[in-house]
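Troubleshooting: if your tokenizer reports a length mismatch, compare your output against this known-good record of 168 residues.
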Amino acid sequence: MSALPRLIQHKIREINPKLTELRECLAKDNLKIVFTNGCFDILHAGHVEYLQAARNLGDVLFVGVNSDEAVSKLKGTERPLVPLELRMKALAGLEAVDYVLPMDSTLNVNLLRRVKPHIWAKGGDYTIASLNQQEKDNALEIGVRVVIIPFVTRTSTSALVQKIKLQR
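Known-good structure output:
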């Protein structure tokens, strides 16, 4: 048995037929599903505030977490600093997060189609115009409303990494 508490284990899901079953059960209960995604390389207060704001948009929050390979493509070869499994465990430990899913691609087109959320939340570093066109078209095609959540705490993992490098 894993040392992780059962609740955290329950929150971490794989992309498989059970995810579809879970989505169907949530739909039967008329729960509003929110989806967001990101790297979440070093979890910080900005992430926590963002995820709570996303959760406040609905009843259930799914978080897609970029794979290590995807993070390297998005952030550079020195990233991620924390491997996917540990990033997922940290997110699953947050009260605001209901389910955590691995995301193999830098784009979440397939995951959006699997989760079929009512709302796709994105952080304040995006605008509707700056979203990836393929992701945006996919969301609109399946009837997902896109919500941009403004920054509250201006903290970023990239800024933290730079600060650490400067202090060496």
